[in-house]
DNA sequence: GTTATGACTCCAG
DNA sequence: ACTGGAGCCATAA
């Protein structure tokens, strides 16, 4: 199957759009659902993240990416996501659950 | 063709 | 818990 880069980006954005309110996912988790590596997810968001709730996607350890760190923490806190010392409580809000 | 860069993740010390 | 190194994959020069 020929997987065009644009299709992959679209699939990533679709998954991010599916993240429920108050929940948080990781680059690796999204990448797994789409079938790509975490770096590919990060690039997809940097490109078209403006159209999806990008702030519901954090790193594997619960810390947000640097360029948007402060902004993301603020948005998550506003959504009711438990944030501890700059780190999201993934155990409580991780999505998908498994 | 090679090299450098980036909204990442994993493993070892 | 923190740091460093290696792996990974697409784009830019």
From TrEMBL:
UniProt keyword terms in alphabetical order: DNA damage
Coiled-coil residue windows: none
Domain Methylated-DNA-[protein]-cysteine S-methyltransferase DNA binding: 9-81
One Pfam family recorded for the sequence: DNA_binding_1
InterPro entries named among the record's database cross-references: ATL_DNA_repair, MethylDNA_cys_MeTrfase_DNA-bd, MethylDNA_cys_MeTrfase_DNAb, WH-like_DNA-bd_sf
Protein name: MGMT family protein
Gene source species: Klenkia terrae
């Amino acid at each position: 199957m020929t997987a065009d880069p644009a299709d992959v980006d679209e699939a990533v954005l679709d998954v991010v759009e599916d993240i429920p309110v108050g929940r948080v996912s990781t680059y690796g988790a999204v990448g797994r659902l789409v079938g790509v590596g975490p770096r590919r997810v990060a690039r997809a968001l940097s490109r078209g993240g403006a159209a999806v709730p990008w702030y519901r996607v954090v790193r594997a350890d619960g810390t947000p990416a640097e360029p948007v760190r402060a902004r993301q923490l603020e948005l998550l806190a506003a959504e009711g996501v438990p944030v501890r010392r700059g780190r999201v409580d993934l155990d409580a809000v991780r999505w998908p659950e498994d």
